[in-house]
Amino acid sequence: MDGYNVVGKIEGSDAKLKNEYVVHSAHLDHLGVGAPINGDSIFNGAHDNATGVATVLEIARAYGRLKVKPRRSVLFVLVTGEEMGLLGSAYFAKFPTVPRAALVADVNTDMPTIIAPLLAVVPLGAAHSSLLQPVETAAAYLGLAVESDPEPAQHRFIRSDQYSFVVQGVTGLHLKYGNKTVDGKNNLSEQVQKWRAATYHKPQDNFADGTFDWEAGRKYAQLNFLVGYQVAQATARPTWNKGDFFGARFGK
Prior knowledge:
Distance between the termini: 35 Å
Strand content: 15-25%
CATH class: Alpha Beta
Largest sheet: 7 strands, mixed
Low-confidence stretches: none
Number of domains: 1
CATH superfamily: Zn peptidases
Mean pLDDT: 95
CATH topology: Aminopeptidase
Helix content: 25-40%
Strand order of the largest sheet: 1-5-2-6-9-7-8
Order of helices and strands: EEEEHEHEEHEHEHHH
Shape: globular
């Protein structure tokens, strides 16, 4: 079976910085057809990761509508083979359609989990580099709290496509839901865990009869756009934090 990455580009407006690139990525594959669960064998992947792909497309639409494009160029990369081990992103990050040294950051979108109001975010990987600053700025603008990873033992930062870029020395992050809830109980993780148990990597991850909070999806797309836009506008490239493990291992 062959799988293909899909790549789009918006050229930057700065004569020099347009030769550098910010990447917005998402994976377009899922699990296909498998053993039936409750009579259904088609793994549709509505949340994982059709919502992520739709988010990148909306981000691309937002960039396209800007009268003045950001200083850096922007790539929109929909990768294949994530469910098989980050294969598509690993290939692209190693053999990109632009000079590899010109990639400055990857803002990845994988299963936004838009099943409830978006009130807080967890920027997986941002604490390793200067990318935390644009995340905090964008979140504050949208009225979102920024939380630390509630499941550090799950090593979620290295389990999605942003890690393929990190291995090539490119700063990256993956914005996930925080735990804040409207009722103040701040226990959204409980709802997410119940949803994952019933839906994640099952045919039940389907648009029909699925749970979607479209306002949360809009805000999530805005957040990712604003993070990428700030990086694309900044004079300096993102940098790894001094002494950071990933920066020391891959950033040279």
